[in-house]
Amino acid sequence: MNRHSRRGSLALNATVAAVLAAAGIAANLAWAQVDAAKSSVTAVARQIGVPMEGKFKKFDAQVSFDPAKLAASSAKVEIDVASFEIGDAETTKEVKGKDWFDAAKYPKAVFQSTSIKNGTPGKYDVAGKLTIKGKTVDVVVPATYRQEGASQVFEGALPIKRTAFNIGDGEWKDTSVVADDVQIKFRIVQAKK
Question: Would you say residue 72 has pLDDT above 90?
Fold first, then answer.
């Protein structure tokens, strides 16, 4: 796999991770602090058919959630796109550049919920607007949650198209090397207030 292909996968993964992080936290509003050591947001994309996974190391959330009052619940998640890492320093650096995240011009990816509704048993459908690289797209993130001791755990995955956010400009618009489909996976753990 060439260096350019790996870089494309990283940017795509980062985009997906941003969306999932936002959705996971949106389903978790009655709890105070995100436990960063137990939480994760990753993005998985395919480069020449091979899955590649990267991780956002910094994100923040403002969440207000009550399962009995979903209409009053809301969430906003901001992800530092420059915190994305894929395991290769050169690829990680390129993903932060203009063709991918353009982190200097667009330092944050933001998810703002518009509604949270019951989905299938044990799941919530978190609708909202995801903004990455200045482009805003409506998304619905399926999230599950469970209580573990004094914490709530939210998990899920959201498929997105990287080209919907202009992630991978120039030579990277070609989706034959780095696939357009990205899977954002999240696990958010918050302690009770």
Answer: no
